Automatic annotation (TrEMBL), chain A:
Name this polypeptide is given: Binding-protein-dependent transport systems inner membrane component
Originating species: Catenulispora acidiphila (strain DSM 44928 / JCM 14897 / NBRC 102108 / NRRL B-24433 / ID139908)
Gene Ontology terms describing biological process: transmembrane transport
Limits of the ABC transmembrane type-1 domain: 95-309
Family, as annotated: Belongs to the binding-protein-dependent transport system permease family.
Principal subcellular localization: membrane
Entries under InterPro entries matching the protein: MetI-like (IPR000515), MetI-like_sf (IPR035906), UgpAE/MalFG_permease (IPR050809)
Length: 322, 289
């Protein structure tokens, strides 16, 4: 075990140990592994400054922040900003939108990769399988700006989709100006971009299933469908649970950047979600404390959702993320 | 293998579905490339589909002779290289430390990173912090807040954990320090995972736009993604009140198409060669995570 050189202390001095075991072992660990600890210094500074400091910075949700003033605000105002958004009809509107958009997205982006992974698993030609996979992963590597650009080009009045509509004698639809289309557009683009990539983890899990289980099922007279139902699906269940818990946790943080790029005041009624509202209130209009209060509310709900989902999955199927 | 009739029918339907997935995935790309080579008039009359109409290269010349486009393109390259470098150094160091099972306090160090996957400070405190640190209008606003991706960290950690410990012990006996072991033994053995991580980081920085959009006010500092964003925001009907939208309102759709193509081009070119590494990297993180 001893990697970094120093020899363990000679035996026979054991009696001194119970006195102050904690400090002593820490001192020993530091002396032995100081080089390892030194490698951790900068990364820890990164986490403290850019991850934990903003968490503490959320106190400005309880304090009045003055631009240019202290990072942590100037004066305690208690729950003022929380009461403000609780009574803000605009907030409840975006809250509803967030739930709907997040829910519908989860409804499609969670099961579809499982279906595709199962279909890919049945492909017998390895070459064909690899080709389909490579193509379907591709959209995952695009910038959200590019995806938004592609969507706008496809859905513009002269775009490919409206060409198709015209071909069947339908009048062109200005998709991006109509609030009733926004959810469809958003969810389909999420599916387009994430479907293939979402299969990777399931395909990895599929390769770990013991082949003897299939043999046995076949001997027992199970057909292909029953083999899938009784062997394949239980085999990838831990992966399904893990991804579901993670998805539920990020449920409220719906694709903020994509919505910011795709929405406009005409579609706010269905497209505006908590993060975009927060961006407009906090960054654009400079109400930092109000924005921080909304953001804190959102993060806490996210955390509660992850913990709850994990609890439920541990009770229901016996596995969870932790 | 089954040869039952039902299974053969299934195989045919399956092939059809997968073909459909491939077509739907590729169609937007083919369409945008076709538009980029077409004349503006054939796009606005709705004739461009899979093949260019009114084939011409003038739009490419227009975009490529725009000095702002090249400036922003160069910014993207510089930002990507710098940010990837910083991220790699920090992630490698931390992952190596976390992979040492005997290390006292290791659990705490892991928890520090893991907790940030489930809870974060949120947009406003981050915005205030970056502004107060004086990082606005500097590349550090892009590099520093995103320096370590916890997912990448975990992938590297599990890779290091699987390296044979005997090698490192032997090196320690031979008198190498921890730094020496990391530099001369571990890193040379980890080329595969290092390459994967470089790709992960490079792609994410190449694609990012929001930090630059948030923290940079001067157009000479924009990455090309913000350039593109301003084009499409301007074209979405003047709904956005950003400074760029007035000029961008008249931006023709073929210019947008060309800009999109040029922005994705590097990724499309390297993608076929590197995607199997990505897949390996993700699977490594998944199975061992």
């Amino acid at each position: 075990m001893g990697i970094a050189g120093t020899v363990d202390p000679p035996p026979g001095r054991e009696r001194a140990r119970p006195l102050r075991p904690r400090r002593k072992t820490w001192r020993r660990a530091l002396r032995r592994d100081w080089q390892l600890y030194s490698l951790a210094v900068l990364p820890v500074v990164f986490f403290v400054v850019f991850r934990y400091l903003p968490m503490i910075g959320n106190v400005i949700a309880f304090r009045r922040y003055v631009p240019g003033g202290s990072l942590f605000g100037e004066k305690w105002v208690g729950l003022r900003y929380f009461r403000m958004f609780m009574g803000d009809p605009e907030f409840w509107h975006v809250f509803g939108n967030t739930m709907i958009l997040g829910g519908v997205t989860l409804l499609f982006t969670f099961p579809l990769p499982i279906v595709l992974a199962l279909l890919l698993n049945e492909v017998r030609s390895a070459k064909l399988k690899r080709f389909v996979q490579s193509v379907s992963y591709l959209p995952h590597f695009l910038s959200i700006v590019v995806v938004a650009g592609l969507i706008m080009q496809l859905l513009s009045v002269n775009g490919a989709v409206n060409q198709g509509l015209r071909a069947v004698g339908h009048a062109p639809i200005p998709f991006l100006q109509q609030p009733e289309w926004f959810r469809t557009i958003y969810v389909s683009s999420e599916v387009w971009q994430g479907l293939g990539w979402g299969t990777i983890l399931y395909l990895a899990a599929l390769t770990t299933i013991d082949h003897q289980l299939y043999e046995q099922a076949r001997i027992d007279g199970a057909n292909r469908w029953r083999q899938t139902w009784h062997v394949t699906l239980p085999g990838i269940r831990p992966m399904m649970v893990t991804l579901l818990v993670l998805n539920i946790g990020t449920f409220m943080a719906v694709g903020f950047e994509k919505i910011l790029l795709l929405y406009n005041p005409l579609t706010y009624s269905t497209a505006d979600v908590i993060p975009t509202y927060l961006y407009r209130v906090g960054v654009v209009s400079g109400s930092f404390s109000y924005g921080a209060a909304i953001g804190l509310f959102e993060s806490v709900i996210g955390l509660i959702l992850v913990v709850a989902a994990n609890q439920i999955s541990r009770r229901a199927v016996g596995t969870g993320l932790w | 293998m089954e040869t039952g009739r039902g299974y053969r029918v299934f195989q045919i339907i399956n092939a059809l579905i997968l073909t459909g997935v491939v077509i739907v995935t590729l169609y937007p790309f083919v369409n945008i490339v076709a538009q980029s080579f077409s004349s503006e008039s054939s796009i606005t009359s709705g004739h461009v589909n899979l093949l260019p109409r009114g084939f011409n290269l003038t739009t490419y010349k227009t975009v490529m002779s725009d000095s702002a486009f090249w400036e922003n393109y160069r910014n993207t390259v510089v930002y990507t290289v710098l940010a990837t470098g910083v991220s790699m150094v920090l992630t490698t160091c931390y992952a190596y430390v976390l992979s040492k099972k005997h290390l006292k306090g290791r659990k705490v160090l892991i928890a520090i990173a893991l907790f940030t996957m489930f809870f974060n400070g949120g947009l406003i405190p981050n915005y205030v912090l970056v502004s107060d640190l004086g990082l606005r209008n500097s590349v550090w606003a892009i590099v520093l807040p995103n320096a370590i991706s916890v997912f990448n960290l975990l992938v590297m950690k599990s890779f290091f954990e699987n390296l044979p410990a005997e090698l490192e012990e032997a090196a320690a006996v031979d008198g190498l320090s921890t730094y020496g072991i990391l530099g001369r033994i571990v890193l040379p053995l980890s080329k595969a995972v290092l390459a994967t991580m470089v790709l992960f980081y490079a792609v994410s920085f190449w694609n990012s736009w929001f930090s630059a959009f948030l923290y940079m006010d001067r157009s000479s500092l924009f990455p090309v993604t913000v350039y593109l964003r301003n084009l499409i925001a301007g074209a979405s009907g003047g709904a956005d009140q950003s400074a760029a939208s007035d000029t961008a309102l008249q931006i023709a759709s073929n210019i947008q198409a060309v800009t999109i193509v040029l922005t994705v081009l590097p990724i499309l070119v390297i993608y076929p060669f590197v995607q199997r590494y990505f897949v390996k990297g993700v699977m490594l993180g998944a199975v061992k995570g």
